[in-house]
Design the sequence.
């Protein structure tokens, strides 16, 4: 898509995310009963984020070595339980270092 | 502050209490919003776009998806419908979060109060609100929301401004910060639950398989992500049938 479509995209997603938050809040005041539906919706963010990361991450930092190094740093720190800002900053720093050295 | 004190306190004090309780969220959001804004500028977004998204979306995953799927410096980029659908799928969980938060509001909360609560729905704010031992009031939720939104929009402005000052060869590697953020969300959840680990690995395998298809039959990348994610979550629910107990996902 072209840059001209960016404003309509942002407004459309804004409207959709507002309705997704507001409609259940306003209309449905009882919990969801279907355990399968609850499990499915609960897993969706993780599965979509995971698919976004692999393989996209390998072309995210300019070059493959920089991207792979940054991804490895992010995985290691996340496994060690480091917080989100730390993981993000470390991955960017490692990727930048590899870019500058190459 | 005990539940009794909070109930006795006036709306202004309750608002301040919510504001203070969300300060850790405020600082975390500031850092994440900075990286999303910086990545957006690195990918050729106009400077107004990150701020408009932060003001109107208030969603790290969907803003991250827009920036992650669109690269205006590349010769071709993802399509409008793919990206819009992906964002909506990512934000579906807010409907569940809104339900969870709705359960914590005092009975009889009116539509105006529910509007404030709806605008406040993010993973972190709902987690804080739901973890309180007391029923949360609208001024309290408003305090959580204002504090978090200041961090989110402040971080976005800093990201746009900071990137303008950085040399280009330092901006390109910042693009990975966005993916690292997703790693930081997914890895702890996958580590804590075998079901989530299965789901995450299935999504990765599916998406890599789709990306290896010949170009003539390969779906656009944002659509491939959506298909892989939905299929993996569905397969996981089939492979690990939930027990009878209903719980609202975090």
Sequence:
């Amino acid at each position: 898509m072209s840059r001209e479509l960016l404003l309509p995209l942002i407004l459309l997603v804004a409207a959709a995310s507002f309705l997704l938050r507001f409609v259940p809040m306003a209309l449905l005041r009882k919990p969801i009963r279907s355990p399968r539906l609850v499990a499915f919706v609960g897993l969706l963010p993780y599965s979509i984020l995971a698919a976004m990361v692999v393989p996209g991450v390998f072309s995210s930092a300019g070059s493959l070595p920089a991207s792979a190094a940054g991804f490895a740093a992010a995985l290691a720190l996340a496994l060690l339980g480091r917080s989100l800002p730390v993981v993000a900053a470390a991955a960017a720093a490692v990727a930048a270092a590899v870019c500058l050295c190459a | 502050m005990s539940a009794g004190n909070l109930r006795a306190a006036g709306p202004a004090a309750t608002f301040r209490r919510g504001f203070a309780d969300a300060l850790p969220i405020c600082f975390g959001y500031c850092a994440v919003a900075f990286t999303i804004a910086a990545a957006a500028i690195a990918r050729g977004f106009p400077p107004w776009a990150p701020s408009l998204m932060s003001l109107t979306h208030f969603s790290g995953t969907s803003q991250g998806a827009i920036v992650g799927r669109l690269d205006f410096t590349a010769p071709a980029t993802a399509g409008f419908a793919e990206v819009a659908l992906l964002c909506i799928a990512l934000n579906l969980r807010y409907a569940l979060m809104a339900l969870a938060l709705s359960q914590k509001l005092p009975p009889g909360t009116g539509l105006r109060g529910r509007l404030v609560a709806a605008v406040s729905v993010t993973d972190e704010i709902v987690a804080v609100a739901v973890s309180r031992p007391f029923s949360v009031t609208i001024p309290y939720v408003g305090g959580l929301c204002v504090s978090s939104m200041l961090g989110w929009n402040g971080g976005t402005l800093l990201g746009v401004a900071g990137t303008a000052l950085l040399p280009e060869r330092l901006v390109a590697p910042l693009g990975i910060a966005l993916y690292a953020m997703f790693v930081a969300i997914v890895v702890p959840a996958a580590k804590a639950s075998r079901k989530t680990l299965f789901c995450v690995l299935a999504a990765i395998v599916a998406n890599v398989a789709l990306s290896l298809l010949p170009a003539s039959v390969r779906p656009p990348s944002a659509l491939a992500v959506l298909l892989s994610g939905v299929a993996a979550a569905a397969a996981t629910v089939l492979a690990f049938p939930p027990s009878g107990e209903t719980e609202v996902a975090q």
In short: Chain B touches chain A through 110 residues (CB under 8 Å). The radius of gyration of chain B is 20 Å.
